[in-house]
Each structure stands twice: as C-alpha cells, then as structure tokens.
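Re: your question from the hallway

Yes, I did run it. Sequences:
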Amino acid sequence: GAVVSQHPSRVICKSGTSVKIECRSLDFQATTMFWYRQFPKQSLMLMATSNEGSKATYEQGVEKDKFLINHASLTLSTLTVTSAHPEDSSFYICSASGDRSGYEQYFGPGTRLTVT
Amino acid sequence: GENVEQHPSTLSVQEGDSAVIKCTYSDSASNYFPWYKQELGKGPQLIIDIRSNVGEKKDQRIAVTLNKTAKHFSLHITETQPEDSAVYFCAASMGNFGNEKLTFGTGTRLTIIP
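Structure:
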C-alpha cells in the first residue's frame, strides 16, 4: 500500500506557542489530504480537507485561524496549531489520497501533541 | 450528515475463532466503506474496503459484506490470531473513492485470547 509519514511523532510545547506538524505522501502524489484529531479511546474526528493548491475546507466547529493548513505540494501538507492551549493536546493524524493509492485514504502514524 | 454506528464496542474471542463487527450507516448516498485497524499509538491501517456495487469482498482471513438495502456492512475475521488484537473502525463515504471525506464509527476493541 501507499506510505504516509508524519513529523514529528511526538511534540511537547508550552501554552501560547505554535507548533507545526508535517504530513508527507512518500510514494504517491496526494491530491487530497485530510487532518483528524483523536482523543484517548475515541474515534477519529475530521478537522479539515485540503486539496493541493487550494484552501482547506474546515469542518463545523474547527477554528481555521487556530488550525492553519497548507497543502503546498502533491506530497506535503502541514498543520500549524497556533497559540496552543492544554485543551489542544491530542493525537493528530493525517491521511492522503491520490490516484496511485487507488484513491483510498492512507493514514500517517500520527503526532502526539502535549501542551503544558 | 452521515452517521455511522458500530457494534460491539469491545469483543473478546478465543484464538482461532471468528470475530464479527457490524456497522450501520444512515445516508443511502454513501458508496464507499473501508475498514481500518489501529494499534495503540499508531495511525489507522486500511485492511479492506468495499464499494456499493459489490456485496462481498474477501482477502485471506478478512471479509467484508455489504447490504445496501438495510444500510449495514460487517467485517469478518476468521482463524483469529493474537496479532489481530487492535481497535477496528468502520467508515463510510459518499464518494466513490477515498478522496471524499470519511465518517467513522466509534470503534471496536478486539482482544484475541491465546
């Protein structure tokens, strides 16, 4: 199957600072990338959908000015959590979809964000 | 919007027995139904998927069935092994492909008892 990576795998930041998470499709071109967050023992909640070269579409209730998404190339999308607060602590997971992957969604390994 | 319900929330089976996880969806426009396996601290892994023009799909020990009339689909794992222990999520999408957003079920924690 297609391979998606995320970096970093874990990050700890102080309240009020910003943190950037990268999502890369390693062996295919991802025309669409998705960002999810997952709280412990819960399901995945979609935050936003991004298509290469265009603005992300955010789900209802997700603050677009707080969670900045950039899908600048067919292999890279970034999520920046701005002015992070402890309640932003979560597991953030990206997925990617593109023609080589058969258009299925393949997920990255996730990023554990802890805001202190 | 779409709503996906998943049952059971936890499931324990003896090694070698079969496991079945069921999902129902609300929107008849949904056309694509993937299943994901998630191990602790990792991202979900696509294990099998089915599209609305197919009633059943099998891949070795894993099979998925779809009943569009009843709006439910199920994951079947036969000859279970300890490495099958994980959380399993079903999902539904209104697109024909995975480049449409997915609505996930609540997950099933499967434990295989050696």
